[in-house]
Amino acid sequence: MSQKILLSVIIPAYNVEDTIARCVDSVLRQDVAGMEVIIVDDGSTDATPSICDAYSSRKAATVVHTVNGGLSVARNNGIERARGELITFVDSDDYLADNTYGRLVDIATAHPDYDIIEFPVVKEDGTTELFRTALTDTVYTDMAQYWTDGRAYAHSYACNKVYRRRLFDKVRFPRGRKFEDAATLPLLLRHARAVRTVTTGLYHYTFNRNGITARADAKALRQLLDAHRPLIGDSRLRAYKGFADYYYNVLNIQISLYTVSGDDADIVLPTLPYRQNTKLRLLHILGMRNLCRLFRLVYHLTGRQ
Questions:
Q1: pLDDT tens across the length of the chain (305 residues)
Q2: What's the predicted TM-score (pTM) here?
Q3: Closest Cα to residue 227, out of 173, 276, 167?
Q4: In this structure, are residues 47 and 22 in contact, taking their beta carbons and an 8 Å threshold?
Q5: Cβ count within 10 A of residue 273
Q6: In this structure, which long-range contacts are made by residues 15-21, counting pairs with CB atoms below 8 Å and at least 24 apart in sequence?
């Protein structure tokens, strides 16, 4: 009798010949009985396809070659092929600490109502640690509380979470969209009963200074702001103590967008009554448009172009 698949690990790969082996090896070392690894080569033009094929002989690994469609399409292709009760994602330039998935799968198995388990992520630039999520061992049954008070919006990454597969029955990553994780997590939360954040395990996120997060253009920032606007406009969220910090986070996205585009049509965020720091107090003195113009002027005067 074939072994039951508990966890499907989906790894999209595009032109990552220098990092794909480190990524896959870190996954295959995980202490999970009943794990499948789905490597989706997204039309790579370097040595990535042959490196991926070398893993096809491994019992747990499946390699899929597709035409290039982007990260979201590659993840969606993996979801379509996944057989596990649980799904997780790893980006091909990142890697996992040993003994991460085994403990997460044990928690998910012991608590079938936990539909998402989030574990720590460390952002690295070469050998330098830039940022580490400060998670606590907490169970959220109120998804709005998780988003605001739990600051899920600040670490909405797809890859530091284990999901019940059923959450993806009607949800897919949006094709051709930047910051697709921020747009997808709120959709998944609509179907989740409980989220557990833990302090165990570690996802190593390799920060690329030339990547979309570091060098986002106006189109990407516009898409990111559009992902948050419906939530900022949801009056029910404003009852949570963490909403003020969430609003401040989105205000910074609004300012970044105008700084890049200089287009008044991009100023779409409403002014809400929060004044917990200098920037927010300036907002109420200057108004949204003048605040955006001020920061754009400072940005260019300081030569940060």
A1: 467 899 999 999 999 999 999 999 999 999 898 999 999 999 999 999 999 999 998 889 999 999 999 999 999 999 999 999 999 999 999 999 999 999 999 999 999 999 999 999 999 987 788 889 989 999 999 999 999 999 999 999 999 999 999 999 999 999 989 899 999 999 999 999 999 999 999 999 998 654 445 458 999 999 999 999 999 999 999 999 999 999 999 999 999 999 999 999 999 999 999 999 999 999 999 999 999 999 999 988 886 54
A2: 0.93
A3: 173
A4: no
A5: 9
A6: 15/44, 15/45, 15/46, 15/48, 16/44, 16/48, 16/92, 16/93, 17/44, 17/46, 17/47, 17/48, 17/51, 19/92, 19/93, 19/94, 19/206, 20/48, 20/51, 20/52, 20/92, 21/51
